[in-house]
Amino acid sequence: MSRTFCITVAILLCGVSHACARLVFPPGSDMGYIVSDDPETKFDETNGVNDLDIDEQVAERLLQRGEREAIDVVKTALLKTIEDRSRLQRIENINNYQQERAAAGDATDGKWLGRWFPHPPQFNAQTRHDGAPDDLPENMKDDKHGVAMGIPHVKCDNGKVNLTVDWNESPINYTCFNPKKHHLPVLEDLESRLQCVDIPKNYIPQHYCMNREITYNTTLPVYGPHRPLWPTYGEYVFVPPQRWLHSVEHGAVVLLYHPCAEPVEVQRLRIVLTKCFRKHVITPYTLLTTDRPMALVAWGCSLEMATVNDEEVRSFIKKHALKGPEGHMAKDGSYKKFLINKAEYPPGAKQDKNICPMDQS
Ligand SMILES: *[C@@H]1O[C@H](CO)[C@@H](O)[C@H](O)[C@H]1NC(C)=O
Ligand SMILES: *[C@@H]1O[C@H](CO)[C@@H](O)[C@H](O)[C@H]1NC(C)=O
Ligand SMILES: *[C@@H]1O[C@H](CO)[C@@H](O)[C@H](O)[C@H]1NC(C)=O
After folding, report:
1. Alpha carbons within 13 A on the beta-carbon side of 75
2. Ligand 1 atom, smallest distance to 285 CA
3. Keywords, A to Z (predicted)?
4. Rounded distance, CA 246 to CA 223, Å?
5. Where do the H-state alpha helices sit in the chain?
6. How confident is the prediction for the chain on average, in pLDDT?
């Protein structure tokens, strides 16, 4: 199916021009970019693209939005690439040019000829505060994230107002309602699934106030825009992804478990995590699969589990904790809604960088 899709797109774009381009699209992400296959090729009005190579995974994801729409989206993005190239070439101010390239995340070799898809992470000052309330005070604006982080404000996010935008507080999200067989069977033989996405190095997640929804296009997001206030580290009755993804940006490890997951397994996972690392968030999450009803999430990576293997969990934590653009920030968060247990340093650790201290003795 996706193969057909590739061909369709290629044919559609054939008439347009003559060079080759690639849509680079990190798995699990809706943000990608289009680059020329040949780094020397410059797009302009007369020299465009005649073949667009999209990998199957990407094609599948696009197809979920509907083939017609997907093709239009790709075509539009591609035509914009061509436009941007010719516009960039006309830009006399070299500073602007370099800024745009840097924002695009690939300034190192000076040859980036692509375009973010469907939108750049941080492209120009005008769009940075997009969607923030008009009356947001100046001190709440931030050129990096759009809205400043960690400052509670009633007009934006104070951890109290409009929380139902992210979660309607339904018990369905933290209770196992299956009356017949209370807990999900533990599939001992099913291997864990580790998935990592390649996050462009200059990507900076945006902060959005409670006046707008944030959706993720994936059931297990491992990075993305989020709320300005991040949760106090610890265990919750429930905390929505719009909050814990901020913790992930600060290098946290998030433990998600399906409310019907076998409690003995969840407890094992909880013990390993809390003995390894203070910067954690623990919450139920119904959007996990029922065959792998537990997961750890850290910046760019997730580990979905059917059963808990202590060694595998520790190695995931050691490898992926403290990653993310602000991975070493120690400051605790101020969002506390439905907090059950505040996290402590594990026995034997005085700093976060001392991960799994029990292993070292
Ligand atoms: C709450 O659970 C329902 C049912 O699984 C799900 O559709 C919804 O997305 C969940 N909400 C959150 C915030 O996880
Ligand atoms: C809360 O929601 C109302 C109604 O949608 C909206 O007018 C208001 O701006 C929101 N407040 C914040 C802080 O997002
Ligand atoms: C999800 O997809 C829609 C449509 O392409 C896009 O507007 C939105 O920004 C995406 N959300 C995220 C978090 O990437």
Report:
1. 16
2. 14
3. Signal
4. 8
5. 2-14, 56-64, 67-90, 94-103, 125-128, 241-249, 263-276, 310-320
6. 75
Check if 155 has its Cβ closer than 6 Å to any atom of ligand 2. yes
**In this predicted structure, what is the pLDDT of residue 80?**
61
Mutation pick for ligand 1 pocket among 227, 243, 286 (CB with most ligand atoms within 8 Å): 286
**How far does residue 30's CA lie from ligand 3's centre (Å)?**
6
Residue 48 has pLDDT above 50, yes or no: no
Distance between Cα 285 and ligand 1 center (Å): 8
User: What are the extents of the domains in the chain?
Assistant: 2-120, 138-360
Q: Is 161 in the pocket of ligand 2 (CB under 6 A)?
A: yes
Model pTM? 0.70
Query: What digits encode the pLDDT tens for the residues 15-39?
Result: 333 444 555 544 434 445 555 455 4
Q: For residues 294 and 226, is the Cβ–Cβ distance under 8 A?
A: no
Q: Give the model's confidence band at 85: pLDDT under 50 very low, under 70 low, under 90 confident, else very high.
A: low
